[in-house]
Amino acid sequence: MHSGKGLLNALLQFLLLQLCNSSTTNITFDQSIRHGDLLLSHDETFVLGFFSPGTSRKRCVGIWYNFSEDMAVWVANRDDPVNDTLGILTISTDGNLVLLHSNRQGLPLWSSNVSVSPTSTTNTMAQLLDTGNLVLVNQDTNHNSVLWQSFDHPTHVLLPNMKIGMDHGKNLYLTSWNSNNDPGTGNCSFTTEPYGSPQIILYNNHAKWWRLSEPDAVFVSESPKISRRSSSDTFDIILVKNEDEITTPWAVLDHSVFSIIVISESDTSASVKQLAWQGKQQGWVVVWSAPTDVCDKYGTCGPFGVCNTHTAKTG
Q1: What is the reported pLDDT for 117?
Q2: Where is the Bulb-type lectin domain (predicted)?
Q3: What is the 3-state secondary structure of the chain?
Q4: Of 53, 112, 173, 292, which has the fewest beta carbons less than 10 angstroms from its beta carbon?
Q5: Which sign does the torsion angle of CA 93, 99, 101, 107 carry?
Q6: Which residues contact 219 (CB under 8 A, 6 or more apart)?
Q7: Sign (positive or negative) of CA dihedral 191, 295, 265, 250
Q8: How many beta carbons lie within 10 A of that of residue 93, not counting itself?
Q9: Which fold has domain 22-153?
Q10: Contact between residue 100 and residue 73 where contact means Cβ atoms under 8 Å apart
Q11: Can you give the pTM of this predicted structure?
């Protein structure tokens, strides 16, 4: 008898949870996302929803891996959080993806801010791809042409197949959070410097802080694309240089490995790290990080100096 009551209580709790939290694969003019709702990628690897960063009570719209809710990989309204749980992510009357207050009054807290044909404003739809890319598409076309995508507006994390650098006139770069509790635009950035010989550079307060050294052995193709493979067996770092772009996408070779590149700041310092998900530990572990010491920092001893970690000053 008691076991029957326990089963009934568990069933009621499950049904209540389903009523309080709903999931969908599309955001349309008639299908919105509110607090507690989730937008899922087709394979359910990625999730989009409302979250509170760290100990903050403010709400942001973010994307995270389905198995790691505490690690947002992209944030929409990082500089304009919702002060309560009453935000709504929807398609506006002009066809854009927008974040509004629940009463739909006032200016959007965030918007995809693209021009949509007047004949298509009610036919746009937002989807979360299996790559973690949030896209706004026009359903009027046969192939759902992409009007806007989050990969063109990175925040603090580089997912596999994302790019940093100049791509068709767009400047793509990562920027750190202000703190663990504040995802607002921070003081450090990470990008591919397109001038001269392209380099991957970490900036701290607009000053060069660290740069990726040239690999000892690189494969250079005869085409405008230059491929530089890392020494790791798990991922590739690629430099693409042609008339349309100078970018650095990266790819994870082992698709059973979930890995990201993230930048962060602490006091007056900046760092870039590659993290990998460890299923047994149920957490992210550091694969590599930079700078590793004072001599790894950009320009420590000047253009012609030789740095010694035992004698270099850290101040």
Answers
A1: 80
A2: 24-149
A3: CHHHHHHHHHHHHHHHHHHHCCEECCECCCCCEECCCEEECCCCCEEEEEECCCCCCCEEEEEEECCCCCCEEEECCCCCCECCCCEEEEECCCCCEEEEECCCCCCCCEECCCCCCCCCCCCEEEEECCCCCEEEEECCCCCCEEEEEHHHCCCCEECCCCCCEEECCEEECEEEEEECCEEEEEEEEEEEECCCCCEEEEEECCEEEEECCCCCCCCCCCCCEEEECCCCCCEEEEEEECCCEEECCEEECCCCCCEEEEEEEECCEEEEEEEEEECCCCEEEEEEEECCCHHHCCCCCCCCCCCCCCCCCCC
A4: 292
A5: negative
A6: 227, 228, 229
A7: positive
A8: 9
A9: Agglutinin, subunit A (2.90.10)
A10: no
A11: 0.85
Query: What phi and psi values does residue 16 have, to the nearest 5 degrees?
Result: -65, -40
Give the closest residue to 261 by CA, choosing from 163, 150, 128: 163
What mean pLDDT value characterizes the chain?
Answer: 83
Domain borders along the chain are 22-153, 158-303
- CB atoms < 10 A from the CB of 212, how many? 18
β-pair partners for 107: none
| Intra-chain end-to-end CA distance of the chain, in Å | 71
Q: In sequence order, what are the beta bridge partners of 288?
A: 274
Summarize the confidence of residues 92-96 as an average pLDDT.
92
Position 82, amino acid: V
pLDDT digits (tens, 9 = 90+) for 80-89: 999 876 899 9
CA–CA distance, 271 with 265 (Å, rounded to integer): 6
Neighbours of 245 (CB within 10 A): 21
Under a CB-based contact definition with an 8 Å cutoff, are residues 29 and 50 in contact?
A: no
Measured at the CA of 22, the angle between CA 136 and CA 82, to 5 degrees, comes to: 65
Q: Are 73 and 159 in contact (CB under 8 A)?
A: yes
**How far is Cα 89 from Cα 155, in angstroms, rounded to an integer?**
19
